[in-house]
Design brief:
This is HotDog domain-containing protein. One of its GO terms (molecular function) is fatty acyl-CoA hydrolase activity. Pfam families: 4HBT_2. InterPro entries: 4-hydroxybenzoyl-CoA_TE, HotDog_dom_sf. The protein has about 190 residues and is α+β, with helices and mostly antiparallel strands. The chain has one domain (about 5-175): Roll (Thiol Ester Dehydrase, Chain A), CATH 3.10.129.10. It is about 35% helix and about 30% strand. The chain contains four helices and six strands; from the N terminus they run H-E-H-H-E-E-E-E-E-H. It has helices at about 15-30, 55-75, 80-85, 165-185; strands at about 40, 90-105, 110-120, 125-135, 140-155, 160. Strands 1, 2, 3, 4, 5 and 6 form a six-stranded antiparallel beta sheet that branches. Helix 2 (about 55-75) runs antiparallel to helix 3 (about 80-85). It is globular. The protein starts with 12 loop residues before the first helix and ends in a 7-residue tail after the last helix.
């Protein structure tokens, strides 16, 4: 990686590259969706009085990653469904119902983190997402969490069911993950 591809404030480009590789490997090994990967440079001003990343910033990072995940889903959907899922404020879209974050390690600037998501549950009205934040400089997961996203009819202003296309796409992703796992554990490998 050349110096021009390393985020501003990175102290050591080699350590950055090694941390980035470790983060991506960790996320992929834990079945996080590569299309959801969101690299975020940690800013000095995001630290609190204890000189580590403020807890609320972790929630913002997860939000950025969640939006990247939803954009990746939307890119595989019919344009009308995609527009609503991305947040048009019309039709049936997604709305955040709850978030939980477990903090594992403090994070300090300068650093870069990888935020990654995958769905762990899908029902007729709800998607449960798992998230993780991985520090390049520590080469370790520093936080993980869950987010419940529910279908919401923005015109009627009430809960709704997920568009069939969304459920089908997520079920297909589940089958792909299961097939990958079978191939690694001695089951039938998919080529």
């Amino acid at each position: 990686m050349t110096a021009s591809h390393v985020p501003y404030g990175t102290v050591n480009p080699t350590a950055y590259s090694q941390g980035r590789l470790a983060a991506r490997q960790f996320a992929l090994e834990h079945d996080f969706e590569e299309t959801s990967f969101c690299e975020i440079p940690v800013q000095w001003g995001e630290q609190d009085a204890n000189n580590h990343l403020n807890n609320v910033v972790f929630a913002r990072y997860c939000e950025a990653g969640r939006l990247a995940y939803i954009r990746s889903l939307a890119s595989s959907l019919d344009p009308a469904v995609s527009k609503n899922i991305l947040g048009s404020g019309k039709g049936t879209g997604l709305i955040l119902a709850g978030v939980s974050i477990a903090y594992e390690r403090p994070v300090f600037a300068p650093d870069t983190v990888l935020v990654a998501h995958k769905h762990s549950e899908v029902g007729p009205k709800k998607i449960l997402l798992e998230s993780m934040i991985y520090s390049f400089s520590q080469q370790a997961r520093v936080a993980h969490g869950t987010a419940a996203m529910v279908a919401f009819d923005y015109e009627a202003q009430k809960s709704s069911t997920l568009p069939t296309e969304v459920v089908q796409l997520l079920r297909e992703k589940e089958r792909e993950r299961e097939g990958k796992t079978e191939g690694m554990t001695g089951g039938k490998a998919k080529l």
